[in-house]
Amino acid sequence: MSLEPLITASLPVQIHAFAALAALVLGAAQLLRRKGGGAHRAMGYVWATLMLVIAISGLFIHEIHMIGPFSPIHILSLVILVTVPLGVIRARQGRIVAHRSTMLNIYWIALVGAGLFTMLPGRIMGQVLFGTH
Fold first, then answer.
1. What parts of the sequence cross the membrane (predicted)?
2. How is the chain split into domains, by residue range?
3. What value does the mean pLDDT of the chain take?
4. To 5 degrees, how large is the angle CA 9–CA 21–CA 11?
5. DSSP string, 97-126
6. 67: phi then psi, degrees, rounded to nearest 5
7. Which of 43, 55, 85, 127 might form a disulfide with 77, Cβ 3.0–4.6 angstroms?
8. Measured between alpha carbons, how far is 118 from 109 in angstroms, rounded to an integer?
């Protein structure tokens, strides 16, 4: 394991990776904690902000080219830019079941699911974790 591939990566990749790692840990803590209340709300706003940072920084990463400089991950970034605020709005409206569903889907699909693809051979996190090229 070596952080060198991440340290030498472009700034958008570094921002994206560190925000994703922070969101992964904070999101797991949110899943394990009691829901509702001030701590949940504060941690939720930090997590939502991290997810928006991940989505925005992802728009500046162009390592996989499928349609010009874009790949399916860019669609996911756009989806996150819509669904994270939607999840927050749902909580503020008191629509807790819809809020929970939105945030859980974002965590498991966009963060964990997409994160697993970053560990494939040739990807930066795969190089960091497994030394693969």
1. 13-32, 44-61, 73-91, 103-124
2. 4-130
3. 92
4. 25
5. HHHHHHHHHIIIIIIIIHHHHTTSTTSHHH
6. -125, 95
7. 55
8. 13
pLDDT by residue (tens digit) across 63-72? 776 777 777 8
Return the amino acid letter for 108.
Answer: W
| Reported pTM | 0.90
Read off the tokens for 97: 């079941």
Q: What is the CA radius of gyration of the chain?
A: 16
Three-state secondary structure readout of 34-97: CCCHHHHHHHHHHHHHHHHHHHHHHCCCCCCCCECCECHHHHHHHHHHHHHHHHHHHHHCCCHH
Q: At residue 47, what is the residue type?
A: W
Residue with tokens 């499928």: 66
Contact 124, 131 (CB under 8 A): no
What pLDDT, in 10s, does the model give residues 74-92? 899 999 999 999 999 999 9
Evaluate whether 119 touches 39 at the Cβ level (below 8 Å).
no
Q: How far apart are CA 126 and CA 133, in angstroms?
A: 8
Q: Which amino acid is at 5?
A: P
